[in-house]
Amino acid sequence: MILDGKAPTGDIQTSWDRARFDMKLVNPSNKRKYKVIMVGSGLAGGAGAASLGELGYHVDCFCYQDSPRRAHSIAAQGGINAAKSYPNDGDSIYRLFYDTVKGGDFRAREADVWRLAQVSNNIIDQCVAQGVPFARDYAGYLDNRSFGGAQVSRTFYARGQTGQQLLLGAYSALSRQIKNKTVTMYNRREMLDLVVVDGVAKGITVRNLMTGEIESHWADAVVLATGGFVNVFYLSTNAMGCSATAIWKASRKGAYMANPCYTQIHPTCIPQHGDKQSKLTLMSESLRNDGRVWVPKKAEDCDKYPGDIAPEDRDYYLERKYPSFGNLAPRDIASRAAKEQCDDGRGVGETKRGVFLDFQTSIDRVGQPMIKERYGNLFEMYEKITDEDGYERPMRIYPAPHYSMGGLWVDYQCMSNIPGLFVLGEANFSVHGANRLGASALMQGLADGYFVIPYTIAPYLASLTPGEVKEDHPEFKKSVEDVKGNIDKMLSIKGKKTVSELHRELGSVMWEDVGMARSDASLKNALQRIPEIRDEFWNNVNVTGGPGELNQQLENAGRLADFLEFAEVMATDALHREESCGGHFRTEHQTDDGEAMRDDENFCYTAAWEFKGAGKAPELHKEPLKFENVKLAVRSYK
Amino acid sequence: MNLTLHVWRQKGPQDKGKLETYPANNISSDQSFLEMLDDVNEELIKKGQDPIAFDHDCREGICGMCSQVINGRPHGHEERTTVCQLHMRQFDDGDEIFIEPWRAKAFPVQKDLIVDRSALDAIMQSGGYSSCHTGGVADGNAILIGKPVADYAMDAAECIGCGACIAACPNSSAMLFTSAKVAQLAALPQGEPEAKKRVKAMTQAILDEGFGNCTNHYECEAACPKGISVKFIAKLNREYLKSLVPTSTES
Ligand SMILES: Cc1cc2nc3c(=O)[nH]c(=O)nc-3n(C[C@H](O)[C@H](O)[C@H](O)COP(=O)(O)OP(=O)(O)OC[C@H]3O[C@@H](n4cnc5c(N)ncnc54)[C@H](O)[C@@H]3O)c2cc1C
Ligand code: SF4
Ligand code: FES
Description:
The complex is a heterodimer of chains A (about 650) and B (about 250).
Chain A: H1 15-22, H2 28-31, E1 35-39, H3 43-55, E2 58-62, E3 80-81, H4 93-103, H5 110-130, E4 155-156, H6 162-179, E5 183-186, E6 189-197, E7 200-208, E8 214-218, E9 221-224, H7 245-252, E10 257-258, E11 263-269, E12 292-296, E13 314-315, H8 317-321, H9 331-343, E14 355-358, H10 360-366, H11 368-386, E15 395-404, E16 407-408, E17 421-423, H12 441-462, H13 474-493, H14 499-513, H15 520-540, H16 552-576, H17 600-603, E18 605-610, E19 619-624
Helix pairs in contact in A: 3-6, 3-12, 4-5, 5-12, 10-11, 14-15, 14-16, 15-16
Chain B: E1 3-9, E2 18-24, H1 33-46, E3 69-70, E4 73-74, E5 96-100, E6 109-111, E7 114-115, H2 118-125, H3 147-157, H4 164-168, H5 175-187, H6 195-208, H7 219-223, H8 231-244
Parallel strand pairs in B: 1-5
Antiparallel strand pairs in B: 1-2, 3-4, 3-5, 6-7
Helix pairs in contact in B: 2-6, 3-5, 5-6, 5-8, 6-8
The structure holds flavin-adenine dinucleotide (FAD), iron/sulfur cluster and FE2/S2 (inorganic) cluster.
């Protein structure tokens, strides 16, 4: 089937304004009759729930943590982009739009990206009004820094805790609505099914993680803002609880999964040490503003103390390969370059999977206090984890799974192919194409939540009678039965392997075969291994405890079960996409100097996969992509 | 290294609970404290026993989810460190470690080391915001904010809402947590117009949620993983006094 994103046509610069004007509105006094479910309280969900509540809709908001303030958006460090052009360095909405389309390697929908760039400026204003303490200069003006893939300084930040501050802003707006009773907050609830009635999303089934109770919740529209899925790799920069569960359950009910093979491997993470690690820690990309990346030129120097390696024996490979962007080359490129150096035997550290991130040049230029002022908390975190002082000797970094560009397919209104199911933030696939630029996920989450969904949900709601389907509908009962049946099944296996052992196995397959470099052979191997691990899970997992209690093993088991199905679609998508683009690198498709080779003739489309049953091949639907404003070109950062 | 753990086990909110002893063997000094507990749990599962329940999520010291009293101190003895950022290199072979949940009337234990901290959300809901609407706000540079003020607000805003300050306080006072939000918003021009209303509402919420009074022990600051300073408590007290004095535009 050919999918239609229903993006506005014609002049891009007026596209969002025209689309907004054409949208039906819901009469203010009718709004309170509509109930909207928001799953997720991160930047996208928190901002969305607060804004919809303020408009007068009745919102039920869900998260799995004990408070909405703990969504993983809290962990974002570096910053958020906006096209304010305060530094007068040539930025504009058009340039942000252009950079994002190009940065995404021409695999995103132009109109969606335009909208994002346009509302980016409103986001900064909104956050300032909430009391977000962005960095300022001595004259009192907002300060900016640069991020990868851009030659302008458009990133706003709050020390190394930008995500925290933006999320606390959204959380404060949400708290205000909870107080005003327009939003009801359900903490410690995990969505375990989407309820679809006659093809339309009408509610969700959740587990109360404190009591184990399975609950039904109805609504006139369901919005998912449940974050990313890179924990499919087991080790990633995501929080332990991040999962594909919500979007996967929706996919099982018919929502299409778009471009799941587009995953971002972030270049600057603390390298893995030992085999007992439970997660990987990101060192913000902003460090690349002042840090220079290098490895020794000679393999025999790799064990030397870095300070003892002479300048002429160092290979500043990013500066060498990409002179115009240098250390600020986009993430996919920087990650692959690091892998290349290590594959070449010039990696550093205990495992030889690491490269140096060196601040000496900047310390010499601006002094250590300035570097401390900019990134102090990151240096502290680095020292806590590695026991090394990043001011004294270069940090060691290595790429790690970080972000999912892919996600549920949505049209321009952020609505999936299931009417009434909307998807926001990292959970959808929309704006980042095959690679996301730094500081643009926070921008997308808040854009979707504050400035997109409040408009785009209205035409859908206006088209229906509120409250037509409620919890007494047989589909809700059936969904509860299904969820309970699945839980009982997992608890009854009582096999020999723990959930985390099996998750590690899946993770290592995904990292080796569906990671930074993928080939026909590796992907076919993954497609054989994933169902084997899935079988083992369903026959040999040991989940302790019972269903009707706080049971963290059961929570993890359910998330792993979903990853084990989702992983197969991811590998299938990667195998089908016979080109390299952005975060998806197929070793068969590269230029002589190892750069990604896109195939616009055959693959200039979004791949949206329809679930056909576990172990069955999913069906591919395509949304062709048109580039009318930014000309399709080979992406070059040289 | 090999360690002996004494861990608080409690089946549910009504259960009395008690300390149980477990060995933690072959622990590497590179592991984090929670990774050490993961290991212990894997062992328990293999033996068919119920693993230890504890809250955690980001494991990088920012979400505020992790919450354990280690050897009598919330988040353990290392300064400015959450449990998830505590590493085993801080311990020695043969150590005995006591692990307990946050203890406070307002934080009822749910299971093992997991407590209910919704009282903190309730304090925030009482007034921890500026009442701006989505959209229709001024340009971010329309009101200048000097760097010292922005930095002061940021110092306060770093609170991760973990509740260690309350667990450390002999009175279970939520003063440090609350004062951080009051101070951040009162310092900024965007939050100042509602400062009086906010400080009254939030201090009232502290009482309503069952937290104790602040009697200046300052255990909170010592336990805080983000180094939130008690100077914000002084700021809260000043803001509170100000709120009692009507200004000429209030009748
Ligand atoms: C370490 C790190 C640093 C980053 N730094 C930056 C940066 O500097 N700049 C930038 O732009 N981006 C950054 N990112 C990316 C960015 O933070 C995320 O993409 C973005 O915050 C995602 O927001 P979200 O609202 O979509 O999801 P999240 O914030 O992940 O929120 C997901 C929400 O969904 C809920 N949820 C999930 N599943 C369920 C379920 N089944 N049932 C109920 N609730 C559920 C969760 O409880 C949570 O409330 C970073 C990411 C990481 C991991
Ligand atoms: S003030 Fe410190 S200890 Fe208290 S909640 Fe905030 S971060 Fe935790
Ligand atoms: S787990 Fe997030 S702060 Fe410790």
